[in-house]
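Ticket #4471: structure output looks truncated?

Reporter: J.K.
Steps to reproduce: submitted the chain below (76 residues) through the standard prediction queue, then opened the result file.
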Amino acid sequence: MANYQMEIIPEPKPGTASVLIRSGKGTLPIIKGQGDVNYVCGACHTVICEHVERGQIINIVFKCPQCQAYNRIRGT
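Returned output as attached by the reporter:
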């Protein structure tokens, strides 16, 4: 399993990006699949996307439920 660190970005301005925010209680990750890649928060290293395929997720910003940092997958 390969782990890739996401890129920390400033909070996007309203209407400029699709942002996934986990609400409520429960366990991480925000997205879980059946691939061979994990994407982790660039600040606190929490797994945000687990077992996904590289290139499967594009143009999405994730707000880390642990540290509240905004992350995007590098190169998307």
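Triage note (M.O.): checked the attachment and the full token line is present. Strands lie at 2-5, 7-9, 18-21, 31-32, 37-40, 47-52, 60-63, 70-72.
Status: closed, working as intended.
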